[in-house]
Specification:
Largest sheet: 5 strands, mixed
Oligomer: single chain
CATH architecture of the largest domain: 2-Layer Sandwich
Structural class: alpha+beta
Distance between the termini: 89 Å
CATH topology of the largest domain: Nucleotidyltransferase, domain 5
Shape: elongated
Number of helices: 12
Strand content: 15-25%
Strand order of the largest sheet: 6-1-2-3-7
Radius of gyration: 33 Å
Number of strands: 15
CATH class of the largest domain: Alpha Beta
Number of domains: 4
């Protein structure tokens, strides 16, 4: 029995697992929470009737929540009062506090009525005497004011479905949690996104608290029929040749999990490798958060690409990551243990995801260039080794022409200013075509030489037999 303790986003699922999980068996749940200063969405799939819930994906906006709706309304009231009286209430802390309280109250009232009165007598005073704020606010006007905020809830919902690899038609229930989810326009927007009415089976104000209480029971060992399978908030991987971030465990992978991948050395005679563990969504390792590093030493000297280094990421139920590197040839192994999430807060995680999306095109271009350089260096190394090995069988003029192309490619790789991946790929293609033609001719020559040698040996054998007679 295990559960990842994350009070706000997960309590609602624990609440359902403890009270009515049978009703939701085999349905995909969408959980939307808009409250205080955050907007969360999670896709959750119940695994069996015994209260096992698997988190398929997580998304959200840490800069969107109920306070943003309050602030929008406060700014509207400040503007209206200034137009009427010419007084700026933002310079009066006491008046601003009363405006915030009145705005929150009006916001709540407009969830159940189409119009409300905001009446604040003696809101401030000037030389002419006390001033009062009294105006009517309709639901339509409020929805107009917060239209941009509501629109911002759409993208996280769509991304959560993409990450979970589900379509709206595959969703069984949509649960809304948090006081702001009572707003009719929010409910309408959610219905438009998922194509179904949100479920009203939970109290949006109590769900998180009840779920947290059940989780407390789980942690204390008093509740044994709840299991929540969480996911990795960010991708985990290592830095590879050229500073590329190679993912071993993608974001939103269900934990516990274990993934392995085989790597090799980048230089001839290399006897140790540095394993740098990173977490993030950028394509270049330097742009992500480094969680730790260690060295695997004692690798027998060999040509680049020959040693086999198996790197394994093992994440347990508590989110603790164990990273190991083992040389398959010698059996030597080193490892490092990294605590859950690498010390990142929810806000930092979501900021890193947004940062990756913002720089996606730029990162893809940089990664393509690095991979092209790595591929080119590998082609150069392999081709020169084969040219040395089969030197006697190669056509001298063609070998010289190929070496000139290789030298041109080396020069390009040495001076990378303004270099583009397409330029490297074009040169690599030329080198590969010329080398293929050269080595095909050398192979045919070797076959002919072997056949001629066999024909020469046959008469010698017959001659020996005649001499023996």
């Amino acid at each position: 029995m295990w559960v990842i303790f994350n009070l706000a986003p997960q309590g609602i699922f624990v609440k359902f697992a403890g009270s009515s999980c049978t009703w939701f068996v085999f349905k995909l749940l969408i959980y939307c929470r808009i409250r205080f200063g955050r907007w969360y969405i999670r896709c959750v799939r119940p695994r069996d009737p015994k209260g096992v819930f698997e988190v398929k994906s997580t998304n959200g906006d840490t800069f969107l929540g109920g306070e943003d709706f309050d602030n929008t309304l406060v700014n509207h009231l400040v503007g209206e009062f200034k137009k009427e009286s010419g007084i700026d209430l933002t310079k009066d802390p006491m008046a601003m506090q009363r405006l915030r309280e009145a705005s929150e109250k009006a916001k709540c009232e407009l969830s159940s009525t189409t119009q409300t009165d905001i009446n604040l007598p003696y809101i401030t005073v000037d030389a002419s005497g006390p001033k009062h704020l009294n105006l009517k606010l309709t639901r339509a006007k409020f929805e107009q004011l917060v239209a941009d905020l509501i629109r911002r809830t759409q993208e996280p919902c769509k991304k959560a479905m993409v990450d979970a690899e589900v379509k709206p038609s595959e969703i069984g229930e949509v649960l809304l949690v948090g006081g702001m989810s009572r707003m009719p326009k929010v409910q309408q927007t959610v219905q438009e996104i998922f194509g179904r009415q949100p479920s009203k089976a939970v109290n949006p104000d109590e769900a998180v608290a009840i779920g947290a209480a059940i989780q407390g029971g789980v942690l204390a060992g008093n509740v044994t029929d709840v299991l929540l399978l969480d996911v990795t908030p960010l991708s985990l991987g290592i830095e590879t040749l050229g500073g590329v971030f190679t993912r071993l465990i993608p974001r939103n992978t269900t934990i516990p999990t274990k993934k392995s991948q085989v790597f090799s050395t980048a230089a001839d005679g290399q006897t140790q490798v540095e394993i740098k563990v990173h977490q993030g969504e950028r394509d270049m390792a330097a742009d992500n958060k480094m969680l730790g590093q260690f060295s695997l030493v004692g690798i027998p000297p060999a040509s680049r690409g020959v040693p086999q280094i198996e790197v394994t990421f093992d994440i347990d139920a508590n989110g603790i990551v164990n990273v190991s590197a083992r040389d398959r040839g010698t059996g030597k192994e080193q490892q490092i243990v990294i605590q859950s999430s690498g010390g990142l807060s929810k806000d930092q995680i979501e900021n890193m995801v947004r940062d990756a999306e913002k720089h996606a095109a730029e990162d893809a271009e940089r990664k393509e260039l690095v991979e092209a350089v790595n591929s080119a260096e590998s082609v150069v190394n392999d081709t020169e080794q084969k040219m040395t090995e089969y030197k006697d069988q190669l056509n001298a003029e063609e070998a010289k022409a190929l070496q000139e192309k290789i030298d041109e490619l080396k020069q390009k790789l040495a001076n990378r200013d303004g270099l583009k991946a397409a330029d490297i790929k074009e040169l690599v293609g030329t080198v590969q075509q010329q080398s293929l033609k050269l080595f095909e001719a050398a192979y045919k020559k070797m076959v002919q030489n072997n056949q001629g040698s066999q024909q020469t040996e046959a008469p010698n054998e017959e001659q020996k037999k005649e001499e023996q007679k």
